[in-house]
């Protein structure tokens, strides 16, 4: 099935907009994106309120005290408190906004997943969070007790191997808990043959064994693909919605974009920047947490960060700083996505009749399938978008042709 809409030959609109929706879709896209903004910032405020409430009501201190009265060993106290805390936070600050998000996605036809499978996935997430976050909370608590001044440095250092292991096992261990994956060639042999043309042009040496199909159509109508994993688990994943609903040329463009992430080492760069940012972030967290304890600790019954309830203060500091620094990782991500767009479009040169038209039509299709707002607020885009808006991506594609006389491709020889 092909998504309907403004297809190949789509010309730039009078308003200078390459990505356009018909009036009814436009109305829906704007309503959906506005609801999403309220949800995004509402969830952030709600998280801060819950963490603050846990401290200000004395709940965090009382819970820590009751655990410390019953259990004997420090590590056991820490494990019980951490597991209870993450369960409480999952049920209060993570699940409700996620449920509202799902209801919105179903209402606007982005998702077709029923509530029972949705809840089954949520319970998988809860289990993963209990395992993963309990370990991290215990580690943080241990390091704070062991080195009250430098714990942030040790924790950030510990995150380096943990990040590597996490990125390595993500596609083989975590992702299959949520979605079905199979070798792309098993059901889309003709597509793999076509993708091999992009591989040959990009020199990426991505073998067919590293091309996977994700069964996404049973959950929703979104169109996507991604690069994931590191080392021997590095791979390109194409959603079945992308493979089955887009014209072949556009799938090649999306594959070219993902190849750009692959070739330009965006996963490794993301991890290095994440580690560097992690050190800076954790230093700031330690300063803010110390200030919060000094200013409010007595009233909260949390005299020191090294007490169990100090973990809640630490989380509050993390949440506050994440909220205000969000534009930094998002800006870096948008830059990488733009690089991949340039790469993908250049990769198509000589493989499809008109790379500009192909890229433009792919953005149109992806935008319609995801009900992307064609006119996002500039501040919202700067603050919350991890990809450039579909409008700016489509506008770029419409104007970018480095093979005109005097032009210079960025990643390929002329
Ligand atoms: Zn991308």
Cα separation of the termini: 36 Å
Number of helices: 15
Strand content: under 5%
Average predicted local confidence, pLDDT? 93
Bound molecules: zinc ion
Largest sheet: 4 strands, mixed
Q: Please bin the fraction of helical residues.
A: 55-70%
Q: Radius of gyration, Cα only, in angstroms?
A: 24 Å
Low-confidence stretches: 1-14
Structural class: mainly alpha
Shape label? elongated
| SS elements, strand count | 4
Can you give a write-up of this model?
- The chain is mainly alpha-helical and 414 residues long.
- It is 68% helix and 4% strand.
- It has a domain at 23-145 and 288-324.
- It has 15 helices and 4 strands.
- A 4-stranded mixed beta sheet has the order 1-2-4-3.
- Helix 1 packs antiparallel against helix 3 and helix 3 (74-107) runs antiparallel to helix 4.
- The longest helix has 35 residues, at 266-300.
- Mean pLDDT is 93; it is low at 1-14.
- The structure holds zinc ion.
- The site of zinc ion has 4 residues, from helix 9 and helix 12.
Draw up the topology in text:
Elements: H1 23-56, H2 59-70, H3 74-107, H4 115-146, H5 151-174, E1 181-183, H6 184-187, H7 189-202, E2 211-214, E3 225-228, E4 235-239, H8 240-245, H9 248-263, H10 266-300, H11 310-325, H12 327-347, H13 355-370, H14 378-384, H15 390-399
Parallel strand pairs: 2-4
Antiparallel strand pairs: 1-2, 3-4
Helix pairs in contact: 1-3, 1-11, 2-3, 3-4, 4-5, 5-10, 7-9, 9-12, 9-13, 10-11, 13-15
The protein binds zinc ion.
Zinc ion binds at residues 257, 261, 337, 340.
Summarize the structure.
With 414 residues, this protein is mainly alpha-helical. Helices cover 68% and strands 4% of the residues. It has a domain at 23-145 and 288-324.
């Amino acid at each position: 099935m092909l998504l309907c809409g403004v297809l190949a030959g789509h010309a730039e609109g009078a308003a200078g907009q390459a990505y356009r929706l018909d009036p009814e879709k436009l109305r829906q896209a704007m309503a959906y994106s506005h609801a999403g903004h309220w949800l995004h910032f509402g969830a952030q405020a709600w998280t801060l309120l819950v963490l603050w409430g846990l401290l200000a009501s004395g709940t965090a201190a009382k819970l820590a005290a009751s655990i410390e009265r019953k259990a004997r060993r420090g590590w056991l106290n820490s494990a019980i408190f951490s597991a209870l805390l993450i369960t409480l936070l999952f049920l209060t600050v993570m699940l409700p906004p996620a449920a509202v998000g799902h209801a919105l996605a179903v209402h606007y036809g982005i998702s077709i997943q029923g509530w029972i499978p949705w809840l089954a996935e949520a319970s998988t997430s809860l289990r993963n969070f209990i395992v993963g976050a309990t370990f991290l909370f215990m580690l943080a608590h241990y390091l704070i007790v062991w080195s009250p001044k430098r714990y942030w440095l040790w924790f950030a250092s510990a995150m380096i191997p943990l990040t590597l292991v996490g990125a390595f096992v993500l596609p083989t261990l975590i992702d299959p808990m949520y979605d079905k994956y199979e070798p792309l060639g098993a059901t889309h042999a003709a597509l793999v043959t076509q993708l091999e043309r992009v591989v040959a042009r990009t020199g990426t040496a991505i073998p067919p064994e590293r091309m996977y199909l994700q069964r996404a159509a049973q959950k929703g109508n979104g169109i996507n693909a991604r690069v994931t994993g590191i080392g021997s688990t590095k791979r390109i994943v194409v959603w079945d919605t992308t493979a089955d609903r887009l014209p072949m040329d556009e799938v090649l463009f999306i594959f070219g974009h993902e190849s750009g992430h692959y070739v330009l080492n965006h996963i490794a760069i993301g991890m290095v920047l994440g580690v560097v940012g992690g050190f800076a972030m954790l230093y700031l967290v330690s300063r803010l947490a110390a200030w919060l304890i000094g200013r409010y600790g007595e009233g909260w019954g949390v005299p020191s960060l090294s007490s169990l309830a100090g973990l809640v203060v630490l989380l509050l500091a993390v949440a506050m700083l994440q909220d205000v620094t969000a534009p930094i990782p998002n800006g870096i991500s948008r830059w990488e996505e733009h690089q991949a767009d340039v790469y993908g479009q250049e990769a198509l040169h000589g493989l499809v009749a008109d790379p500009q038209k192909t890229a433009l039509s792919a953005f149109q299709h992806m935008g319609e399938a995801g009900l992307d707002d064609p006119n996002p607020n500039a501040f919202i885009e700067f603050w919350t978008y991890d990809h450039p808006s579909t409008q700016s991506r489509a506008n770029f594609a419409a104007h970018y042709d480095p093979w005109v006389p005097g032009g210079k491709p960025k990643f390929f020889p002329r």
